[in-house]
Fold this protein.
Amino acid sequence: MARVLLVEDDPTVADVVGRYLSHAGFEVDRAGDGHAALALAAECSPDLVVLDLMLPGLDGRQVCRRLRERSAVPIVMLTALGEEADRVAGLETGADDYITKPFSPRELVLRVQSVLRRTLAPPPAGRGVLRAGSLVVDVAARVATRDGESLALTVREFDLLAFLMAHPGEAFSRVTLLERVWGWTYGDASTVTVHIRRLREKVEADPTTPVLLLTVWGIGYRFEAGVSASGVTASGVSASGERS
């Protein structure tokens, strides 16, 4: 049973969302403010955090930033602010997804399930290791390194990077990436833009002059060709069963 930390100061919203999550099979812990959220996250080690943006004490962005300093736990942010700049700001602090109030509790459950399906699924066999110079992504183990140092990628960031590296030289629109990487049939395309920006800060030597994650004007993004897929799984066995 996956454990979800619900951080919401409105008792009515917390009760409704908590019941929907519980009925969907999640174990739910609740916190009503930012300080309580950080303390509870340290205590219960949730598999995912549903985080309201507007909180007393520490607001949602501050909580998200502090969680990101110590964990890659997936974060779905709830926001009553509908402006794109506000949504982007939430994503830039490290949130994996966001839902704007008022929202359907069922939609929230589906978003949570989507994120956790990727996070908690057993490693797929034969998915291989992707390499681009010093950048190495082990898809099965869900580990990314650059110059031998582990990269702190969120679930969304890892999935986006792995997808683009698996299709070197191919340009994809933001809408296509939403659908093929995260399975969204709807959503704000600016989500992709923010995640590309965050990825560049982590994988590029100079994020202001990217050489790996390139913008294709009028289309979207592509990963620069030259990446090799080794076909090696975490166990060191290729997809064909031969020892590497």
Notes: The first strand starts at residue 3 and ends at 7. Residues 231-244 have pLDDT under 50 and may be disordered.
